[in-house]
């Protein structure tokens, strides 16, 4: 297997993008990545597109074929990769394996989703299609509902409090306000959403015990990366390549009810462990992480299951500022899903883009983790039933 | 007339693990032979949530959903018949029933409901 590097990354601002089609967004992000890689008019051997819902939302299928045509990358191989909210991570994994195997040299991986063109209750229903079609979906369960049930048990077992959840929300929105690609560029006011009598109106219950500001927004957006073998990347006169040092992917039962302990995110633990083993690194070696905080509880629970903190310590660490920029382990310096947004098929790719920015040391001071060498991502599919993880490593010139 | 609880769970004939929904191979031992079992008695509420942002197809303000474990260890999701989650607590006893849980294309879709009794 060959070492694989990221030689270019691209993203477009997430948010509500009424003026752009899904294909427009994928094309813009891909062109940014191709330009970032210095590809000029060169083509790629293959394209993988992470997307969950074009068939449902846009009534459009085979979007990878559309993208290679739009970008004049013909006759590159082209596939759509669908793995729910982990579609982006899975697409990067497929690109990685294709290059590592020696079959392809240059691969474009793009992830995108356009979710704001349908109403909120249609979008909620779309996301809920990943629940079990017979024993969950008919009851009206939603992903925030799944997270609510999980949060209640996690609070009961590990002593996580609403204060801990609030610390994650405030940190991520503070960081997102500095990120030009973020959907939500708004600081949260603790008084207004937590302490005052008006908090019940400003921050209503979404799915008990989670409130509005515990949830990520519904977003449009796209992100892309260019992969090639590390030895070829080093010969390019371009930005320093970032090595994909490890990846992992693991699955768990479709329904929460069939897990022996519903608070145990086994797929997160396993995917992270695989990625660390492949990279020959440990959680303590990571300098910056992008975790899948679709709900604030997930940043806390994932930080514990990955091994960054002991069980029951993740919430306290967030509240103590250990996961802020400048803290013990900065988490979601991009603002995370909570603030950058969560166009589901784009998220796993966007996490890789953000960690690449960090490892190339090219962010402004107020967002850059100093001397970052090792980065980590978790892309969480379903409700933890299909999880993809990466360890990225800075390469020195 | 009270409707029968129309769910079937699957008990592995080799290791005894109970599955709901169906799996072709046992999650524990990979065995492919199962005994069909029906839920028995009341159930214990394992977790619950009150959802305020409902998906398309639900025309109501909120919905309380939970997971409960029957006396013979079958675990299942259902809607909770309560006006508020203040009436609920983890581990409480709930009485199951089989009722319409939503309407699709003008037709009732039946499923589990749990009424707090503990």
Describe the overall structure.
The complex is a heterodimer of chains A (397) and B (118). With 397 residues, chain A is of the alpha/beta class. Chain A has 15 helices and 11 strands. In chain A, a hairpin with a 4-residue loop joins strand 10 and strand 11. The longest helix of chain A has 16 residues. The mean pLDDT of chain A is 97. Chain B is mostly beta strands and 118 residues long. Chain B has a domain of 78 residues: OB fold (Dihydrolipoamide Acetyltransferase, E2P), CATH 2.40.50. In chain B, strand 5 and strand 6 form a beta hairpin. The two termini of chain B are 24 Å apart. Chains A and B meet through helix 5, helix 6 and strand 5 of A and strand 4, strand 5, strand 6 and strand 8 of B.
List descriptors.
heterodimer, A: 397 residues, alpha/beta, Peroxisomal Thiolase, Chain A, domain 1, nine-stranded mixed sheet, two-stranded antiparallel sheet, globular, B: 118 residues, mainly beta, OB fold (Dihydrolipoamide Acetyltransferase, E2P), three-stranded antiparallel sheet, 47% strand
Report the uncertain regions of chain B: none
CATH architecture of one domain in chain A: 3-Layer(aba) Sandwich
In CATH, the architecture of one domain in chain B is Beta Barrel
Encode the helix/strand succession of chain A as letters.
Answer: EHEHHEHEHHHHHEEEHEHEHHHHEE
Largest interface: A-B, 37 and 34 residues
Q: How far apart are the first and last residues' alpha carbons of chain B, in Å?
A: 24 Å
Give the strand tally of chain B.
8
Q: Supply the CATH class of one domain in chain B.
A: Mainly Beta
Shape of chain A: globular
β-strand amount of chain A: 15-25%
CATH class of one domain in chain A: Alpha Beta
Report the biggest beta sheet of chain B as strand number plus sense, adding barrel if it closes.
5 strands, mixed, barrel
Strand order of the largest sheet of chain A: 3-2-4-7-1-8-11-10-9
Please provide the ordered H/E string of secondary-structure elements of chain B. Answer: EEEEEEEE
Number of discrete helical segments of chain B: 0
- Number of contiguous helices of chain A: 15
Q: Structural class, from helix and strand content of chain A? A: alpha/beta
Helical content class of chain B: under 10%
